[in-house]
Automatic annotation (TrEMBL):
The keyword Acetylation applies. It holds the Pfam family Annexin. It comes from Macaca mulatta (Rhesus macaque). One of its GO terms (molecular function) is calcium ion binding. Keywords: Acetylation, Annexin, Calcium, Calcium/phospholipid-binding, Cytoplasm, Phosphoprotein, Repeat. A pair of annexin repeats may form one binding site for calcium and phospholipid. The gene is ANXA6. Belongs to the annexin family. This is Annexin. May associate with CD21. May regulate the release of Ca(2+) from intracellular stores. It is found in: Cytoplasm; Melanosome. InterPro entries: Annexin, Annexin_repeat, Annexin_repeat_CS, Annexin_sf, ANX6. The keyword Cytoplasm applies. It comes from the Eukaryota. GO terms for cellular component: melanosome.
């Protein structure tokens, strides 16, 4: 069994089996495979309940007792995914890694994802053991085989990682941190082209502790996380490798939690990835992976495996997982600490928000007004010209074009556009032509008019806008509809939901920083409400979530975790329901990471059968000059595909062209 570092707590899910007898286990396995068929239950029960060290003793006893190779017999008796899993468990860890890499580079094509996962995540000691095991098992040099099967900067970084020479000193030089930040900045953002060698040298050799400080300082210095620079400067497998290295530097368990989630989400299961991770991490950090998985994806690793696999294969994976953390949103204590740390990162991060639409250089409202008039004059309409002009001007510039159009032609540009274009394209273009506050006011009006109410639209807008934006919306609503927004909300909603929306619509959220003593009081206030007292709970949450500043709320949520071992979002989902629950969850998610909140909304608007064009349009219009670039980054980080690709696969025609222009590029 892998030994934890001195003083460190063992975090694997598989332990040495008490009262272990290798001869008895060898006899039981022989009996399970003797005769016609095999007792798969007995096989999985023994092998998944023993540590790797104990399995090696069983192999030796089996050979001594029967003169046969246990792994060869298991391969003969078992098949498919179950066989791959059990045989993987029987190999020493370094030999298991060696087999995975040999398979990844054998035959036609290369499994780059496997190479990246193993070489980006292993320690120096594990890397040295891997190289030796590969030499012993295949009588070949691993470095030579990797060089023969890969190329370019991807190859160079793999070779650097393969040396297993990453610095391990915990003493960090502040001067060297600053120098590395400057070198990375100059090698990427400040350079025409990219100096890949600097990225390889620094990310491939510096200690984890040093690099974590480099990443923190890089964010402070440049206003963007190192991952954003890597995506902007590097490409292909090299980019994927460097991102994996960064993730493992930040948190190896979080990297594997993400890999496991992606292996099981959507249609089909990436079984090779699932098996490789469950085998390789079962005696290292499976408990940490479980905790992060539960925190990040709001479901347990156990439940996802249970729903995504079957038969003895499923039973074996669940044994390796070691337990189910899905207790109605409750964390076991270590997971609460993980959640606390995630809020801490959210609280300290100061990421610059960036839109994708910026003021056009050499802007000429006369020329634009004339070009738009020409595009709509006569038979037919030149949609390409309309899209090109309107999606590449800032909102302030569009207002100048509207005024110039009226001055030149005595016509209302909005009316002309309405008569010339239609459908989804018309909603998008006309939305872009409106001042932001008037656009939001119109979306709120539409959400409340006619039969039924679009509560999701009300929540999305009111839960995410700043005080200044809310006040501007109030003025626009009064001006356009001769009625106050509060009166409209009062007449169209009811109960606690109405109270929440009206509170948000006042635009009176505090704007200061955090107050630790007050945060503890606030956390205690919502933690003390008896379960089942729904009305009191909703009132207490409303008075805090709708009025406190974002920095203060982040601290409240951290203190809540410390007091209760619950994440506030899980508590809301457990104790509340309907629109009240959805509104509070939206506020919490917006406080934690507003671009990620919108990325999730965009993803849901395009997944499955049919597209929610209204939500898609509303977000693309309203965030294009605020944080759409940040939303793009969160989208690709979470869903493993770019927003550009999602839009391209889900829309068509001129609507597609306009959306892609707003999107601003392919990540």
């Amino acid at each position: 069994m892998a030994k934890p570092a001195q003083g460190a707590k063992y975090r694997g899910s598989i332990h040495d089996f008490p009262g272990f007898d290798p001869n008895q286990d060898a006899e039981a396995l022989y009996t399970a495979m003797k005769g016609f068929g095999s007792d798969k239950e007995a096989i999985l029960d023994i092998i998944t309940s023993r540590s790797n060290r104990q399995r090696q003793e069983i192999c030796q006893s089996y050979k001594s007792l029967y003169g046969k190779d246990l792994i060869a017999d298991l391969k003969y008796e078992l098949t498919g995914k179950f066989e791959r899993l059990i045989v993987g468990l029987m190999r020493p860890p370094a030999y298991c890694d060696a087999k995975e890499i040999k398979d990844a580079i054998s035959g036609i094509g290369t499994d780059e994802k496997c190479l990246i996962e193993i070489l980006a995540s292993r320690t120096n000691e594990q890397m040295h053991q891997l190289v030796a095991a590969y030499k012993d098992a295949y009588e070949r040099d691993l470095e030579a085989d990797i060089i023969g099967d890969t190329s370019g900067h991807f190859q160079k970084m793999l070779v650097v990682l393969l040396q297993g020479t990453r610095e391990e000193d915990d003493v960090v030089s502040e001067d060297l941190v600053q120098q590395d930040v400057q070198d990375l900045y100059e090698a990427g953002e400040l350079k025409w082209g990219t100096d890949e060698a600097q990225f390889i040298y620094i990310l491939g050799n510096r200690s984890k502790q040093h690099l974590r400080l480099v990443f923190d300082e890089y964010l402070k210095t440049t206003g963007k996380p190192i991952e954003a620079s890597i995506r902007g400067e590097l490409s292909g497998d090299f980019e994927k490798l460097m991102l994996a290295v960064v993730k493992c530097i930040r948190s190896t368990p979080e990297y594997f939690a993400e890999r496991l989630f992606k292996a099981m989400k959507g249609l089909g299961t990436r079984d090779n990835t699932l098996i490789r991770i469950m085998v390789s991490r079962s005696e290292l950090d499976m408990l940490d992976i479980r905790e992060i998985f539960r925190t990040k994806y709001e479901k347990s690793l156990y439940s996802m495996i249970k729903n995504d696999t079957s038969g003895e294969y499923k039973k074996s994976l669940l044994k390796l997982c070691g337990g189910d953390d899905d207790a109605a949103g409750q964390f076991f204590p270590e997971a609460a600490q993980v959640a606390y740390q995630m809020w801490e990162l959210s609280a300290v991060a100061r990421v610059e928000l960036k839109g994708t639409v910026r003021p056009a250089n050499d802007f000429n409202p006369d020329a634009d007004a004339k070009a738009l008039r020409k595009a709509m004059k006569g038979l037919g309409t030149d949609e390409d010209t309309i899209i090109d002009i309107i999606t590449h001007r800032s909102n302030a510039q569009r207002q100048q074009i509207r005024q110039t159009f009226k001055s030149h032609f005595g016509r209302d540009l909005m009316s002309d556009l309405k008569s010339e274009i239609s459908g989804d394209l018309a909603r998008l273009i006309l939305g872009l032509m409106m001042p932001p506050a008037h656009y939001d006011a119109k979306q709120l009006k539409k959400a409340m008019e006619g039969a039924g109410t679009d509560e999701k639209a009300l929540i999305e807008i009111l839960a995410t806008r700043t005080n200044a934006e809310i006040r501007a919306i109030n003025e626009a609503y009064k001006e356009d509809y001769h009625k106050s927004l509060e009166d409209a909300l009062s007449s169209d909603t009811s109960g606690h939901f109405r109270r929440i929306l009206i509170s948000l619509a006042t635009g009176n959220r505090e704007e200061g920083g955090e107050n630790l003593d007050q945060a503890r009081e606030d956390a205690q206030e919502i933690a003390d409400t008896p379960s089942g007292d729904k009305a009191s709970l909703e009132t207490r949450f409303m008075t805090i979530l709708c009025t406190r500043s974002y920095p203060h709320l982040r601290r409240v949520f951290q203190e809540f975790i410390k007091m209760t071992n619950y994440d506030v979002e899980h508590t809301i989902k457990k104790e509340m329901s309907g629109d009240v629950r959805d509104a509070f969850v939206a506020i919490v998610q917006s406080v934690k990471n507003k671009p990620l909140f919108f990325a999730d909304k965009l993803y849901k608007s395009m997944k499955g059968a049919g597209t929610d064009e209204k939500t898609l349009t509303r977000i693309m219009v309203s965030r294009s000059e605020i944080d759409l670039l940040n939303i793009r980054r969160e989208f690709i980080e979470k869903y493993d595909k770019s927003l550009h690709q999602a839009i391209e696969g889900d829309t068509s025609g001129d609507f597609l062209k306009a959306l892609l222009a707003l999107c601003g590029g392919e990540d």
